[in-house]
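User: Assemble these into one structure.

Assistant: Restating your components, then the assembled model:
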Amino acid sequence: MVAIGAVIGGLIGHLWWGICGALAVELTRHLVNLHQFDHWLRNRNRRDPPDAGGLWGDLVSQVSRLHRRKRFHKQRILRLFRELRRSTASMPDGVVALNPLREIVWFNRKAGELLGLRRKTDFGLQISSLVRVPEFARYLEKGDFSAGLRVHPRIGEAFCIEFQAVPYGEGQMFLLVRDVTRQAHLETMRKDFVANASHELRSPLTVIAGYLETLALDEDLPADLRPPLLEMRRQAERMTAIIADLLELSRLEATDEQVVGNPIDIAALLALLRKDAAARDAGRHTIEMRVESPDGLMGDPGLIHSAFSNLLDNAVKYTPAGGAITLRWWVDELGGHFSVTDTGPGISEEHLPRLTERFYRVDAGRARDAGGSGLGLAIVRHVLQRHGGQLKVESVEGRGSTFSCHFPPLRLVHEPVALADDTRYSA
Amino acid sequence: METSDLSQHISRRFNEDLERVRSQVLTMGGFVEQQLAKAVSALVEGDSLLGETVARDDFQVNKMEVSIDEECSRILATRAPAASDLRLIVAIIKAITDLERMGDECEKIGYIASRLALEERPADKYREVKHLGRVVQSMVHDSLDAFARMDPEAALRVARQDRLVDEEYEAIQRQSITFMMEDPRAIRRVIDVMWVVRALERIGDHAKNICEYVVFMVHGKDIRHVRIEDVESELKQRGGKA
């Protein structure tokens, strides 16, 4: 172009004018192209790319190819995202995504319904600001998400939801929310049924036991009827014991709330238990007591007595005559511990996990001879749960077993008189 | 609005302090909500144990108030907040006082409920109290929601409900007078129930106060002792200008 300008300039005798004119034309063309290019970039979604040759044409086609590819990916991601949103919206359970600060990042429709969350306004707010049930805040703070949490957001109503936190990544978590009103209702019905049935069975049984007792005292009773009558009395007593245990268990199960209770003098409690057991045992076992700490325990005296005496009764029942039983109470940095060790036949490993189930028997024949109700360990487990404690069982077959109760340090009372302060809410 | 302001602080620690104290207020609010629900349910179901639990647990509300108060003083002293941050702190200091008083009213209801549980229940099974309780409960819940979301429109909606509570209170009062005239033996019980209803009405007033602080926090405008309609029209005008 410049060369053509120079030639024309040379022909008309003004070489520089020719070159300048040519440069001006060239510049104008570039400016026009640049303007078109800019205009197209601004409205590239609605317009066709400008038709320019040479370098500009290459540039335009490069950019439009990039643009097409970007749009393609964007649409694919958008489609995927819409699909995801549609599918999570139709999920039967609620899901809330939280960042490490426990702020709401995202939630699906069901979670919004169950928790009363609103789109747009609630993103970025702390979940505990909107779900203000105190148990929920405690659940998130505790950081133990092995189990879910059931709450009644509205006291006095059946509506019940279950939370399950699922941590992932670096501190983020998913919160699964389920409406468990129906399950909770069924469970209450089942518990009520057990409690009511036991209660209803108790009165007729009292009558039967009473008549059996009177009959046994009757001296005119034929001698051949005496053994069956004795057996009937024994079985009636067992049934009474089972029903008493069932009632206690359903009372324990009625609530999950932690017992506040009063300070208990453990040394005195163990001395009492030992005396009672020794009196019933009539010297068949040696019962040793090792109290290694003067500390007491915050708890319900009746429940703790029932749990400890259940463990001791089991040891007495299953340890053959001549065996030794040791009661031990000690305190360390993990809290307070109570254990009952016996030199009985022991329990093989496969039974240990199921030991606290109701009516579970290690050996069907043995337990019934000893007259257990099959509910003792279930009661122990529930009592400990309500005190924030745990039951652990160690056993070696043929050598004996150790049942131990572990209480958290918060439950200990160092001076038996002072009441432990509830420090849950202190800053 | 406010939340975006909060994220612009140069000092990240300051941000965290504000967020923490705000979530503490809502934790306290959640606890008071539960106390209220338990107290009403203790009365309606005649559960004396639950009533005693409510009365006993009030010390936790007091403890939370003291701890949040200290935290606010600390922020005021060390950070010297200005503008919306200052309004947030001021609103929090006021709100926890109202929450603490709500807690006291719940304690009162719990105490009376445990006493009434031992007596004969009236034929209507406290239906009116139950209904009033439900209205007040939803007021408290919604006012705390408005506080969490910094939503002045929702706050004004809740504040308007207070009138409903007052009307309900009047109605129960009139009905109670009739009961007392009909059966003088019931006077003692009816007076106790009146105390409960009075406490519920007070709780509604405190919830309304919290709503006013929300408007103050967001718009910087004090709307106490002003008719709600006037406030609404003024806020609407402002919105129009903006």
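The domain at 2-241 of chain B is CATH 1.20.58.220 (Methane Monooxygenase Hydroxylase; Chain G, domain 1).
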